[in-house]
């Protein structure tokens, strides 16, 4: 297409950031230009064309002091009972902040453990990373919200997303 039409598409896209390719195509058609929506999309300049946003690793490096990670692991006893251990780790120091063991972990029990971890002597974190286990229920979500903690759920089958706790 001609240079003047390319400049017009870029100008319309930059001045009307909420307009998509179809809306710009319709406005161009009203002005007498016949162009496809795909061509409009090709010549639109968007703010995210400047490069990719910072990744997960950068996020972890910037906020390491404000992040905790939690998870479960299981152990067999000498009498063949399965014990489930819940633990919380600080990202910056990799210090184990809290550990508790139970035979039957429930959402209520896990919610109580996170409250105990954020006791009177420890400031709650800004973020808590955990997997999508069913043991973290709605009560756990409400407790985190009341403590002012934003939870970050790791993707399904992605142990590297919570690598400190998974190690």
SSE inventory with pairings:
Layout: H1 3-15, H2 21-30, H3 37-43, H4 56-62, E1 67-76, E2 82-90, E3 96-102, H5 107-117, E4 127-130, H6 138-147, E5 150-153, H7 163-166
Parallel strand pairs: 1-4, 4-5
Antiparallel strand pairs: 1-2, 2-3
Descriptive report:
This protein is of the alpha/beta class and 167 residues long. 37% of the residues lie in helices and 20% in strands. It has a five-stranded mixed sheet. Strand 4, helix 6 and strand 5 form a beta-alpha-beta unit. Helix 5 runs parallel beside helix 6. It is elongated.
How many helix segments?
7
Query: Mind summarizing the main beta sheet?
Result: 5 strands, mixed
The arrangement of helices and strands along the chain is HHHHEEEHEHEH
Approximate shape: elongated
**DSSP strand content:** 15-25%
Strand order of the largest sheet: 3-2-1-4-5
- Provide the helix percentage: 25-40%
Rg from alpha-carbon coordinates: 25 Å
Low-confidence stretches: none
- Total beta strand runs: 5
Nearest-integer average pLDDT: 88
End-to-end C-alpha gap: 55 Å
Derived from helix and strand composition plus strand pairing, the structural class reads alpha/beta
Brief overview:
With 167 residues, the chain is of the alpha/beta class. Helix content is 37%, strand content 20%. It has a 5-stranded mixed β-sheet with strand order 3-2-1-4-5.
Relevant terms:
167 residues, alpha/beta, 5-stranded mixed beta sheet, 5 strands
């Amino acid at each position: 297409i001609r240079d003047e039409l390319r400049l017009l598409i870029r100008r319309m896209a930059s001045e009307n950031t909420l307009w998509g390719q179809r809306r710009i195509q319709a406005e161009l058609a009203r002005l007498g230009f016949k162009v496809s929506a795909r061509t409009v999309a090709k010549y639109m300049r968007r703010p995210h064309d400047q490069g990719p946003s910072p990744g997960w690793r950068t996020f972890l490096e910037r906020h390491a002091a404000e992040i905790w990670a939690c998870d479960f692991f299981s152990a067999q006893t000498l009498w063949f009972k399965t014990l489930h251990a819940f633990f919380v780790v600080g990202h910056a120091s990799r210090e184990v902040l809290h550990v508790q063991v139970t035979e039957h972990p429930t959402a209520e029990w896990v919610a109580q453990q996170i409250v105990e971890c954020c006791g009177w002597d420890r400031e709650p974190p800004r973020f808590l990373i955990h997997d999508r286990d069913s043991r973290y229920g709605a009560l756990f979500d409400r407790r985190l919200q009341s403590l002012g903690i934003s939870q970050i759920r790791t993707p399904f089958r992605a142990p590297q997303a919570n690598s400190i706790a998974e190690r």
